[in-house]
Amino acid sequence: MKSIVEKLKINPKSYYFKNPAIRQLDTKKLKEEYKSIISHPMDLGTSMRKINNSKYNTFQEFYDDLNLIWDNAQIYNEVGSEVYEHAEYMRNYMEKLFNDEELVDKVVHKEKVNKEENENKEKIEPNKDEKNKEENEKENKNEVVEEKDKENNNDSFDDIEKLIYDGNEQDNNNNNGNDENVLEAQKNSVDKNEENVNVNENNEIVQNSNEINHQLNLSEINNIYIWKIWKY
């Protein structure tokens, strides 16, 4: 296809068709008029860009675009004008190029090769996409497993921390219990000491009372004895 466009462009009468026709119009009014008449502009430069960008899916699409160039020129320009006549000449010249079996065979063969390459590429791409999909699924699965392991580890750590906390709490309770027992024993000891002190004090009071009574008795005896002596 590219070789056909190149042959058309080097023809002297292709001057009006190498670039978009609207660029060759002088005034805005003519350009607006052209847009209102020609709904699908086409030129050799645009056709070459479509070839380079692989926009043509079939040889027929390429052929239709070239004919569109000559059709637009003859629709917009008057019959007998230079542009009209050059368009008719280029149409005939194009047909001669297409009738060149060797050239057309090359173009068709190249088109067939390109089509096969595209088909193979389309077959490879799905496989590639499928492979990427499998890899992504595998990665996602690994991430889920890792996340689950992480959660299990966190749960294990939480259990260990809970056991340690419960152990410390139990130790604190035991220590508190021991402290309470010690305080109770100390309190009992104090109470017992106070009780002993009270008993000792009571004993001392009783002893003192007995001594006083004994002295009183001795005093009474002495008084009686003295009285008797005095009497006699």
Could you explain the architecture of this structure?
- The structure is a single chain.
- The chain has 232 residues and is mostly helical.
- Among the domains are: 2-99, Histone Acetyltransferase, Chain A, CATH 1.20.920; 195-232.
- 84% of the residues lie in helices and 0% in strands.
- It has six helices and no strands.
- The chain has helices at 2-10, 28-37, 44-52, 59-76, 82-99, 101-231.
- The longest helix has 131 residues, at 101-231.
- It is rod-shaped.
- 10% of the residues are buried.
- Mean pLDDT is 75; it is low at 224-228.
Could you give the topology of this structure?
Blueprint: H1 2-10, H2 28-37, H3 44-52, H4 59-76, H5 82-99, H6 101-231
Helix pairs in contact: 1-3, 4-5
